[in-house]
Every structure is written in C-alpha cells, then in structure tokens.
Amino acid sequence: DNEKGADETVEVEIKGLFDGHNSGGVSAAQELYENTLITDVHTAAKVYGNTEDTAVYQDATFFVKGDKNLDSVIKDLGKIDINWREYNLIKSSSNYPALQQSISGIYSISNKLFFGSLIFAGVVVSLLLFLWMNARKKEIAVLLSLGISKLEIFGQFLIEMVFISIPAFVGSYFLAQYTADKLGNNILNKVTGDIAKQIAKQSASSQLGGGAEAEGFNKTLSSLDINVLPKFMIYVVIFMSLVLLVSLIISSFNILRRNPKELLIDNN
Q1: Which of 25, 82, 179, 240 has the lowest tally of Cβ within 10 angstroms?
Q2: Are the C-beta atoms of residues 180 and 226 closer than 8 Å to each other?
Q3: What whole-number distance in Å separates Cα of residue 141 and Cα of residue 164?
C-alpha cells in the first residue's frame, strides 16, 4: 500500500487499547485484531507520505441515529449540491445485518408498546372513572337537594380529579423507568435470540473471513440504556388528561341531568 515509499516516523500518544479476539481462523494478517490501528486523519496520511489535503481516501463512513430511516436519509443526501458522478453513496447496513435488525426490532416493539399502553390505560381509567361517578350518585343527589348548582358539583369533581392525577403522573414517571428497564431487557433477549437463529441459518453456507469487520456481520445489541424522554411523558399527560376530562364530562352529564329523587332511589 505504501506506493510513495514513505519512511516517515510519527510519534503518537496511545489513548486507549481495545481487546478483541478472532473467533475463527484468518486468511490475512490484517484480519487480526492486534493488527488493527485506529488513528486520526493526520497520522494516517503522514505515514504514507501525504498530508490531510493530498491524502487519498478510499471511503468514509457516516452514522445516523437508530430511529432514522436509512433510505430516507440517503434520498435527502442525494439532493445536496455534490457531483455524485464522482462518488458512490452505499448503504452499509448490510455489513451489520443482525445489528440493524435488532435495532429496528427494538424500535418497532417499543413504539407498539407505547401506543398500546396508552390505549389500554385510557380504557381502564375511563371505566374506573365511570364506576367512581356511579358510586357517588346519592352524594350528588344530596348536593342537588341542598341547592348546589350542577356547575359547582362538576367543578368539585374536576378539582378532585386534578389532585388525584398530579401525584399519579409524578409516580408513573419513576415507575415507568423501573418497568422499562425490566421489560426492555426481556424484549432485547427475545429479539436478539430470534435474529441470531435467523442469521445462523443464512450464514451457514457463506464463507466469511475472520476479521473484525466479518465478525461484525453477526453482531447484535447486547444491552439497552433506557431513558424515559420528557416529550413522551408530555404525550402521556396530555392524552390521559383529555381521556379523564372527556370521561368526566360524559359520566357526570348522565348523572347530573337526573333529578335528586331518581338518584336516591336508583340502586344500579
């Protein structure tokens, strides 16, 4: 590779060492982990007798966030004012198919769980609120008999609901973090287990090298660092607040429109 016959000596500072072991045999020395060196651009160019401006780059790797659609990102990049006839933009997710599938699987399941949990929580809370209002029919009848207006009674229920909801929302934030940690690891094990079996079948007939890049072919997610984002808590608070308000209006309307006598003799 040293076409210029450069004999440069570069003094570098070791920032860290990474440990890696080839799981299988290798066919070339550069496939060994111990022959892999990661440096800055200046050092890599200098040992070949180049500068950063004159160095020839074979390729450049760019990363996108896991929740982004790679095809959409590539499509947007194609709109940038660059002479694409001189460059090839290649989607390299195929280099890490297991990792790509595990990331996509986690995002897919987490999104389904989020919206499914919202709907389930909304239904349960609505039913509880209807039962709560139904159990207070006689109390409402007494308040109406005392001359308290329906608007005041509704306002009282609304204030009670607010006082109950605030600590519930605060507590749910901490409970969500704990639940997400436990549930996330179980989901990860399920997703990576299925992908590992699938990749094993697909790669059984292939002949891969033994280097770090080849071993990355079967790499999957090993752990999750789960955080409850504030924006999702805001979504939950807004959605549940709307559910509570609508449920309160419907349940209270059906009761407040009746006269006190009917409410007192109604045992249902």
Answers
A1: 25
A2: yes
A3: 23
CB-facing half-sphere around the CA of 88: CA atoms within 13 A: 6
- Kindly state whether residue 75 falls inside one of the protein's structural domains: no
Whole-model pTM over 0.85: no
d(CA 227, CA 177): 7
Q: Residue 55 gets which letter from DSSP? A: P
- To the nearest 10 degrees (0 to 180), the angle between helices 230-256 and 150-203 is 140
User: What Å distances lie between residue 109 and 102, 104, 132, 236, CA to CA?
Assistant: 11, 9, 34, 18
Residues 54 and 109 in one domain: no
pLDDT per position in the chain (268 positions), as tens?
566 666 778 888 888 887 766 566 666 666 676 777 788 888 888 887 887 777 777 777 788 876 777 888 888 888 888 888 888 877 766 666 667 777 777 788 888 888 888 899 889 988 988 888 888 888 888 888 888 888 898 898 899 989 988 998 888 888 887 887 778 777 777 777 777 677 666 655 555 555 555 555 666 667 777 777 888 888 888 999 999 999 888 888 888 888 878 878 776 6
- Residue 32 in domain: yes
3-state SS assignment for residue 179: helix
The one-letter amino acid at 2: N
In angstroms, the CA 135 to CA 146 distance is 19
Please report where in the chains the tokens 């297991």 appear, as a residue.
98
pLDDT digits over 50-84, tens only? 877 777 777 777 888 767 778 888 888 888 888 88
Task: Judge if 146 and 261 occupy the same domain.
Answer: yes
| Tokens coding 153 | 């009674």
Label residues 180-196 b or e (16+ Cβ within 10 Å = b).
beeebeebbeebbeebe
Domain range holding 14? 1-58
